Amino acid sequence: MGERRTEIFQTSFNGDYIEVEYFYPTYVSPSPPLIIIADVYPELVIEELRLSFASSWSDFSSAGNHIRAAVERLLDYLKEPRY
Q1: 3-state SS, one letter per residue, for the chain
Q2: What distance lies between CA 28 and its chain's CA centroid?
Q3: What does each C-alpha distance from 40 to 20, 45, 46, 61, 76 come to in angstroms?
Q4: Cβ-count burial of 52 within 10 angstroms (0-12 exposed, 13-18 middle, 19+ buried)?
Q5: pLDDT the model gives residue 2
Q6: Cα–Cα nearest to 43, from 82, 77, 81
Q7: What are the pLDDT digits (tens) for 9-55?
């Protein structure tokens, strides 16, 4: 899913105008990984990161919350105390 836009630019060579089409994706499924995740992390951490990748196309707040949850799950796995 996405949005297609056409923009018109004037060239600097001879003053002619050209049309350029752009495609701006708003959602991709399945979402490509934005970073490489090593297999040494717990599956709960990896799943939260994958959810953040899917959310990153349209809902930045949701993506950030999934990243926060991944960090919390990692800290739980490392048995870090909660305050």
Answers
A1: CEEEEEEEEECCCCCCEEEEEEEEECCCCCCCCCCCCCCCCCHHHHHHHHHHHHHCCCCHHHHHHHHHHHHHHHHHHCCCCCC
A2: 10
A3: 45, 10, 10, 27, 15
A4: buried
A5: 84
A6: 77
A7: 888 778 888 889 999 888 788 889 999 999 999 999 999 999 999 99
Do 29 and 38 form a contact (C-beta atoms < 8 A)?
A: no
Using the structure block, give the residue that is written with the tokens 């495609």.
23
Tell me, what amino acid is at 26?
Answer: T
pLDDT value, residue 60: 93
CA distances from residue 44 to 37, 65, 73 in whole angstroms, order as listed: 12, 14, 7
